[in-house]
Write a structure and sequence with these properties.
Layout: E1 20-24, H1 29-40, E2 44-49, H2 52-64, E3 69-73, H3 79-93, E4 98-101, H4 117-146, E5 149-156, H5 167-187, E6 192-199, H6 205-218, H7 222-231, H8 241-252, E7 262-266
Parallel strand pairs: 1-2, 1-4, 2-3, 4-5, 5-6, 6-7
Helix pairs in contact: 1-2, 1-8, 3-4, 4-5, 6-7
Organism: Mycobacterium intermedium
Keywords: Oxidoreductase
Family: Belongs to the short-chain dehydrogenases/reductases (SDR) family.
């Protein structure tokens, strides 16, 4: 069953019935696709983001897919909001089995010699510190007590490429991999698995906006920019959001029970 289809007759690539998954950045984009895929696989879904109206739309789509959801309007850079979101999940569903730390911001491109602390702080707090805090709260309030759990971080292959002005973003996203590997060792004996999904250029609004900006800057057709992005990948195409969601639900399932502390690349074979 595709993400765009309603109904719950199939559990897709994973059977997550009876489990509860929290998705950050669920107000749109990859986060919305993740939420729908978890619902289609039978999980209850906790939707976390700052924008209430967009979260309500995600909740409506989850309901169309036959899923149950809870919306938690929260600023994940606020520790109290993180603590409360996990508490709300437990109050509603009685358990929290999966945490997908998907929310992120790109920040403003700045060479280090021109960098502002405010810009770096926004990127590091949203992309690295907030996932740590949410993971801590999920562990403290739910997963350690239950003796099981699955934590995922969403990183970026772009962080592994040396690009001027992206030092803050690279530091945060590469930090997620280190966080995931360390946390996996810390909690593995407790029955909790931790992995990082490293994504490439993903078809959707963010790439569309990037393509449009670059096309204007270079005075070329947008399609030529899009083709250039695709040609950097072994599969000669962009990654689809559904493909990321399918990997995520698989990692959360019993089929991936021996996989922890890993970086899982979903990049269509990105080479540059």
């Amino acid at each position: 069953m595709g993400v765009g289809q309603a109904g719950s007759a199939s559990v897709g690539p994973a059977d997550l019935r009876g489990r509860t998954a929290m998705i950050t950045g669920a107000s749109g984009g990859i986060g919305r696709v993740l939420a729908r895929r978890y619902a289609q696989c039978g999980a209850n879904v906790v939707l976390v983001a700052r924008r209430a109206e967009q979260l309500a739309e995600t909740a409506r789509l989850v309901a169309d897919d036959g899923g149950e959801s809870l919306t938690a309007v929260a600023d994940i850079c606020n520790e109290d909001h993180c603590r409360e979101a996990v508490g709300q999940a437990l109050s509603r569903f009685g358990r929290l089995d999966v945490l997908v730390n998907n929310a992120a911001v790109p920040g403003t491109d700045q060479a280090v010699s021109e960098a502002t602390v405010a810009n770096w702080r926004e990127v590091l707090e949203t992309n690295l510190i907030a996932p740590m805090v949410l993971s801590r709260e999920a562990l403290r309030q739910a997963m350690i007590c239950s003796g099981s759990g699955n934590i995922q971080f969403v990183s970026s292959a772009a962080a592994r490429l040396v690009r001027t002005g992206k030092a803050h973003y690279a530091a945060a996203k590469l930090g997620l991999s280190a966080l995931g590997q360390t946390l996996a060792v810390e909690v593995g004996s407790l029955g909790i698995r931790v992995n990082t999904i490293v994504i490439g250029a993903v078809a959707g609004e963010l790439v569309d906006n990037y393509v449009a900006r670059l096309a204007v800057q270079e005075s070329v057709a947008p399609e030529s920019v899009r083709q250039r992005l695709a040609s950097a990948n072994a599969l000669a195409r962009l990654v689809e959001p559904q493909e990321i969601a399918d990997v995520s639900v698989w990692l959360a399932s019993d089929a991936a029970s021996a996989i922890t502390g890993q970086d899982i690349f979903v990049t269509a074979g990105q080479q540059r």
